[in-house]
Design goal:
Elements: E1 2-10, E2 13-27, E3 32-46, E4 49-62, E5 65-79, E6 86-97, E7 102-118, E8 122-138, E9 144-162, E10 166-177, E11 184-197, E12 200-211, E13 216-227
Antiparallel strand pairs: 1-2, 2-3, 3-4, 4-5, 5-6, 6-7, 7-8, 8-9, 9-10, 10-11, 11-12, 12-13
Length: 241
């Protein structure tokens, strides 16, 4: 795993860039497989507003058969104008995920979030809001399903750092349809990183996604190294969605 992080501060704005690339390859006399995972993050904060963008692409084949061609991009805005540790958020999201049989999925919505614990070493955040989901899916009987539904989107996020050397990060989403009881989406990511040097860490990540309507899920575990550097970095926290 290779991760490059750049952070710079200009006047009252902070910018953050993160690129992560992972890959696996396996070949024997009778089998071959490979998987490439790429992620790019960008965030900027100015006073009470934070803008975040995340783009992911996962591609894989097993014995020359496609297993993953999964792309997702999201853009969200956080607005802090009321109470401490509390903020509003807005979200735009697009997914095209082969492994979950999602041809196209558009989501947009608004919500609120609150940091129950908000310290330098530990953060615990709850978020809830309403999304409208418009999807083009492939059902188990290979029928195409194009439909729209409002969803409640609940998220739990945590971050725990021990002596600036060992860190744990996780977030989980549960998105239930407000029209169909059996229609729900689960997304979960948990990672751990051990800092070996100031610029080098050993990391492992576990990801799980499930789409009830298509009766599909994917499970991904990766591990490797993070190489990072900061430019013009200060201790001010970036906003959290």
């Amino acid at each position: 795993m290779l991760c490059l992080r750049l952070s710079a501060q200009h006047t009252d704005s902070t910018y953050y860039i993160n690129y992560t690339s992972t890959g696996t390859f396996n070949k024997t006399n009778s089998n071959s497989s490979y998987l490439y995972n790429n992620m790019f993050k960008f965030s900027t904060k100015k006073k009470d507003i934070t803008l975040n963008s995340i783009n992911k692409w996962l591609y894989g084949e097993q014995n020359k058969e496609l297993t993953n061609n999964d792309f997702s991009t999201s853009l969200d805005v956080d607005l802090r104008k009321t109470f401490p540790h509390f903020y509003y958020w807005g979200l735009l999201n697009y997914n095209s995920i082969y492994s979950l049989k999602i041809n196209n999925q558009f989501q947009s919505g608004l919500g609120v979030a609150y940091n129950i614990i908000d310290k330098n070493s530990i953060t615990l955040n709850l978020s809830d809001g309403i999304l409208y989901d418009y999807s083009d899916l492939v059902l188990p009987n290979n029928l195409r399903d194009v439909y729209g539904t409002p969803r409640n989107s609940f998220r739990l996020l945590f971050k725990w750092t021990i002596k600036d050397r060992l860190s744990f990060n996780g977030n989980g989403f549960l998105q239930n349809s407000l029209q169909y009881k059996s229609d729900y989406i689960i997304k979960s990511d948990i990672s751990a990183a051990l800092k070996l040097k100031k610029w080098l860490s050993l990391t492992a990540t576990f990801s799980y996604n499930k789409m009830s309507r298509t009766q599909t899920y994917n499970l991904l575990m990766t591990y490797g190294f993070i190489i990072e550097n900061y430019f013009g970095y200060n201790n001010e926290k970036l906003g959290k969605k």
